[in-house]
Amino acid sequence: MKVLAVNGSPRKEGNTHKMIEKVFESLEAEGIETELVQVGGKIVRGCLSCYKCIERKDKKCATKNDLFNDLFEKMLEADGLILASPTYFADITPELKAVIDRAGFVSRVNGQLFRHKAGAAVISLRRGGGVHAYDSINHLYQICGMFIVGSTYWNLGFGGRTEAEVSNDKEGMENMLDLGRSMAFLLQKLKS
């Protein structure tokens, strides 16, 4: 089994990355393979509404000048997805939003390719907007017929402007460990 995490933060080693690492600790302890893909700070176009994916039904987006199609293949291969973002102006980063829009569209028009996969949202924040960002990710999971994995509390971690501050959020980091255990539990049940 494999879980793919997509980091929407432009800070490769930032608070969002630290939270993903914590979730991975629990997943790897259960023998689940993990992979992290960095999209924050990279070029990812939004959906152009060209409808070529509907026409072709080839599990690809017609826009080919960015990282999306390679990422989408990895998303299809994974049993579980973690989409993670810091909260900027009360929502997810534009790179992650572009991935969500295109992945949701291509998945749905090719026969609900994400149906019955496990998905979890992970959000780092400084003050507010975290629940809205959390919802933005979970909307993809819901419309694609995925199982949303929760934990002991919202999958949020409070950090700040420096790259390791979220590590001081003891409750948030414990929640990430529990999120990993919950995802492992669900994946094991789905595979049995």
Beta-strand portion reads 15-25%
Helix proportion of residues, in percent? 40-55%
Class inferred from helices and paired strands? alpha/beta
**Quantity of strands, as a count:** 6
Uncertain runs: none
Please tell me how large the radius of gyration is: 16 Å
N-to-C span:
12 Å
- SSE order, one letter for each helix or strand: EHEHHEHEHEEH
Mean pLDDT: 96
Individual helix count: 6
- Assembly classification: single chain
Largest sheet: 6 strands, parallel
How would you sum up the global shape? globular
Question: What would your notes on this structure say?
Answer:
The protein is α/β, with parallel strands linked by helices and 192 residues long. Helices cover 43% and strands 17% of the residues. It is built from six helices and six strands. Strands 1, 2, 3, 4, 5 and 6 form a six-stranded parallel sheet that branches. β1, α1 and β2 (33-38) form a beta-alpha-beta unit. The longest helix has 22 residues, at 170-191. The chain is globular and about 50 Å long. It starts with a strand and ends with a helix. The model has no long low-confidence stretch (mean pLDDT 96).
